């Protein structure tokens, strides 16, 4: 790279990161325009360090920006990116990263998008993701898709952005939009938020509609905001939440919808009892030291820390996998059957998981780095009785006998732990590192709210602090996270746009 190119990239990036440490009451990138973000994407995503977080750009973004001029409100004119398994009415395909859906232009908005548009938000583009939301194979590399290639972590370009909302996490860390939408079945919002050093919120399952979102599991899927502050996440959640007649899981959403940002500035941790999931910290001394600093900040803010000696039973995760396999086969088929035939140019329409498996076998570029073992297991998972037993058991262990029991027995309001380990090296040959830090799986299976807030870094690699609460306790979880955000004394790292150690 020439020195002039390096200077250009650095200049483009300065504006993106200058506000990363802004006080949480001030939305980051508040004055940014579509043109500014497009220039930044051109400089650091498509050229220079090539973060590769953006899979498609909205050709109508500037037109949408002009249309919202004059609107008022905290979200008016804010520019967002949307994970590419979520349909928007903009002229962009929704691919889930698969070549099978490269022409999937439905013209439909996921219902929650209507609230964001009404608030004046502008869709700039779609973000890359782990193909099929990381449910095609157990050997995958987070952030890789056949359509988008490999997304990189802007804090260390040779290290994982985590998945499957990898592009959303990397893009916001690198200042390519004001905020992004991710989706999660188990860890796909919180892990990339943690590894990329941003805020990620997985709401209670059923608070936000999943209609027109390419699914894995109706039991666990949700969408959620990925931002640079807890306040921004709360603002977006307020616009996104609500009941949808087409999604039965959201029947109670309107009853729990509120202004999630109201009162965040005044919240306090004084006297709040927090359950410390000590066994979720792992054994890395530097991770432990960083977590201890977070605990010290919480304690200084008045929180009462309660040590919990708890390990989730192995059968919880085992049964979760059975549930995901069974529901993937049925839920994906339901989605594919809703897609217009015009989305399958030059081929017979794919309507089932078996069709997707056959497509992958016929297109070697799909399977060049890893296979589709999870797809094949899901296609064979047809025993409804086994599925129902697995769902009942995993839900009981994660909910009633997991989070609910821990909160009640120890009289704590929330559970806290590191969200995920520091970013591991990208390895397309052998796939992702096995994660031994964090306990977000309980919240994912139970469908309970899970917020991750940056707590600092280990060797320049960001880590997040998780706050998990009871079902429908979304507002209180956000309040606790905002209070910690104000109390945090450890600096939050800014992306280097270099390889780790350089």
Can you tag this structure with a few keywords?
16 helices, disordered N terminus, 502 residues, two-stranded antiparallel sheet, Amidase signature (AS) enzymes, alpha/beta
Would you mind describing this structure in some detail?
With 502 residues, the protein is an alpha/beta fold. It has one domain (14-314, 393-487): Amidase signature (AS) enzymes (Alpha-Beta Complex), CATH 3.90.1300. Helices cover 36% and strands 13% of the residues. It is built from 16 helices and 13 strands. It has helices at 3-17, 34-45, 61-67, 111-118, 131-134, 166-173, 190-196, 230-240, 253-256, 285-300, 314-338, 353-362, 373-380, 384-409, 441-446, 474-487, and strands at residues 54-57, 79-83, 122-127, 144-145, 149-150, 179-184, 199-202, 222-227, 273-277, 304-308, 414-418, 450-458, 461-468. The strands form two sheets. Strands 1-3-2-6-8-7-12-13-11-9-10 form an eleven-stranded mixed β-sheet. A two-stranded antiparallel sheet has the order 4-5. The longest helix has 26 residues, at 384-409.
State the secondary-structure class: alpha/beta
Level-2 CATH architecture: Alpha-Beta Complex
Radius of gyration: 21 Å
The best one-word shape is globular
CATH class: Alpha Beta
Please work out how many helical segments DSSP would assign: 16
The biggest beta sheet, please?
A: 11 strands, mixed
Proportion of residues in extended strands: 5-15%
Q: Give the count of structural domains.
A: 1
Mean pLDDT: 94
Unreliable residue runs: 1-30
Tell me the series of helices and strands, N- to C-terminal.
HHEHEHEHEEHEHEEHHEHEHHHHEHEEH
- Fill in the CATH topology: Amidase signature (AS) enzymes
